[in-house]
Structures are given as structure tokens and as C-alpha cells.
Amino acid sequence: MTNDWFAAFLIGLLGAGHCMGMCGGIASLMNIGEMSSKRLWLNPILYNVGRIISYTLIGGIVGSTISTIAEYSGVNAPLNWLRLISSIFMIILALYIGQWWAGLLYIEKTGQHIWKYISPLGKKLLPIKHPFYAIPFGFIWGWLPCGLVYSMLTWSAASGGAPQGALIMFSFGLGTLPLMLSIGLSTTKLNQWIKSILFRRIGATLLLFYALFQLYQGVVRLM
Q1: Where are the transmembrane segments (predicted)?
Q2: What total number of domains does the chain contain?
Q3: Cα maximum dimension of the chain
């Protein structure tokens, strides 16, 4: 499981450019017209705290729900199948991060119907009247339809429990943190480094090998 947490962090780090494109514009709205230098730092930090809390919560819920179903049914086969599915999603992620195939974008469309009912709640919190309002704002926007998040949730589902599922999503959220914070803090060099094609493809290749290994293990468990 430790390897899964590290891989989840790596996916967050490598895929943060996608997160930046998805919700970076919304995150940048928090500091429009803001004159206080303290709040220019605090708003993005607390926004990302709320976002990571939402990831951790849903990861724990998914991990707990699936493991409870498997426990009471007395059948572990569903978990083995979920591990296999999560490996396939990992391969899709690696291909997306390496910019070899953008099939992940089609997965995002599945959540757009629900998102149209959730997004108005976040918009009501704008403009951010106090830095601590950025926490619920980030929590709501953590539910934005995202293929990366959906893929990581398949890992949480196959993790075997609430703590494991929560930690996978928490690690993913931490991985996205450096680039997402840079939206508000204007760290241009960090953006260029993380978004560089060489960095992405080295990481994507490592992830692809790890995914193929996990896929092999999943097939062996089902045989």
C-alpha cells in the first residue's frame, strides 16, 4: 500500500497541470481586488486545504463502502476485479500524463451532470470575504469533474478500507499542491518545471511500468 501512496503523490504532481487548467481560473478569482499581502498568501493555502479535505473524505467513503460490502458478502472477488480496473485506469493516466493519449478526458464527462448542481454553492462564496471562507470554497471545488480524481477513486475503492482509501486521495492531493499553490503565489519557474514535457514523460513512463506490474498482479489474483 505504501507504493500506492507514493504513486498517488506522483500522479498528483505530474497531473497538476490538468488540475490547473480545470480549476486554476476559479482559484485565481479569490485574490481579485485583494490588497492585503497576508491574504494573497492565505487564500490560496486555505483553498487547497479545503480541496484536499474533500479528496480525503471521498476516498475514505469509497474505500469504506466497498470494503464493507466485500466483508459482509464474504466475497473478495469484487476487490480483486477493482484492483484490476484501477490498474487499467493507471495505464490511462500514464498515457494522459505523458501526452500520448487523451482518453482520460472522456471520463470527466460522466460527472458534469452532477457538477451543475454543486457549482452554484461554490460561486455563492465569491468574493472571499474572509480567508477561512476559502476552505469551504476549496472543499466544494474539490468535487469538480476530473478524470484524474475519478481514476484515483478506483484505487481508493480497491484499497480495502477507509484509512487506506483516504490516504491514497490525501497523497494525490498533496501531489497537486505545489503547482496549485503557484497559481496564487506566481512561482513561474515551478510551473515550467512541472509542466515540462520531459518531466511529465519520465514520470509517466515510471507510472506506466508500475501500472503494468499492478495489472499483472491483478490478473494473477484472479487466476
Answers
A1: 6-32, 52-72, 84-107, 132-153, 165-186, 198-216
A2: 1
A3: 62
Q: Which three cell numbers stand for residue 168?
A: 491514497
Point out the residues of the chain with pLDDT beneath 70.
1-2, 17-39, 74-77, 183-195
Q: What range defines the domain where residue 179 resides?
A: 2-222
Residues 49-79 have pLDDT tens digits of 999 999 999 999 999 998 888 777 766 667 7
The CA–CA distances, whole Å, from 82 to 73, 77, 154, 206 equal 16, 9, 7, 22
Give the burial class of 19: count Cβ atoms within 10 A of its Cβ; 0-12 exposed, 13-18 middle, 19 or more buried: buried
Look up cell 479535505; give the residue: 53
- Give the Å distances, CA to CA, from 93 to 17, 43, 179: 13, 30, 18
Contact 16, 178 (CB under 8 A): yes
Give me the percent of the chain exceeding a pLDDT of 90: 21
Helix 162-185 / helix 188-195 crossing angle, nearest 10 deg:
130
| pLDDT at site 15 | 79
Q: Is 5 helix (H, G, I), strand (E, B) or coil?
A: helix
Nearest residue to 6 (alpha-carbon basis) of 115, 136, 167:
167
Q: Which candidate, 60, 44, 52, places its Cα nearest to that of 186? A: 44
pLDDT at 173: 94
The contacts of residue 222 (CB under 8 Å, 6+ apart) are 77, 80, 81, 84
* Residue 144, SS3 per DSSP: coil
